[in-house]
Here is the input.
Amino acid sequence: MKGEHVPEADARDDKQFHADIPALDHGFFLKGSGSYDWGMKNRLARIFRPESGRTVMLAIDHGYFQGPTTGLERVDLSIVPIAPHADALMLTRGILRSTIPATHRGGIVMRASGGPSILKELSDERVAVDMEDAVRMGVHGVAVQVFVGGEHETQSVENMTKLVDAGYRVGIPVLGVTAVGKELTRDARYLGLATRICAELGAQVVKTYYCDEGFEKVTAGCPVPIVMAGGKKLPELEALEMAYRAVQEGAAGVDMGRNIFQSESPAAMIQAVAKVVHEDAQPAEAYELFQELSGAAVPA
Here is the structure.
């Protein structure tokens, strides 16, 4: 090494090891998530806000089985302007690649199952995205539909477990989405069954519907975070009331679509929802914000 430049040795004796202070254990803020690898925790922290432990996800993946849904005819015009207000977007890889700017800073949860259209048996889905492509796209989670009680129940559960296995290899969490057919009842007993199955078989997050009675038992019985599905379009105040009840009864946020992008003022609505979810605002207070922002909104 003679004649070559080598780093100078650090021979100082006044190093500060703070031997009297135990090493900090930062833990993790999400239910059931403490044992995940750093990468998976980091991705979950891009979907959920660490300050509140909750998320406002904007679901815009409806086109994967029902085509150009009302409010999503032009995602570039209707969704891209309001996307910064969402903690995370739930969408397909086609829309992500073609329409969402690569400068988007929020979380991305990519739909990873699909197959049948609304014209066929919806439970007959397959895994529709290779996890390698999810890594290539830089997403923070993937979503898969699980049809507990449906015609192709076992197949849909296997779709999820395959994605869970692949996700652990690369540090990407899986959102299990409980699908409810027309013949199934959206009550606490069914939702508790479906959400628990998803969690038991490895989903890091579960999305399900709200029920008026017993929802707190659904969230308590699921060992991982539950986010509430928005479902059909409701009047704005009713949607805010549903979101409020859900988070007060244990949901770690909401994943709303039609109740936001089909609102008379989507930008105002998503901000009102965020006030309920992250600030525990009463629905009436959030609705006042919606009205105030709607009045100030400039028509598209």
Observations:
- The mean pLDDT is 93.
- The chain has one domain: 38-295.
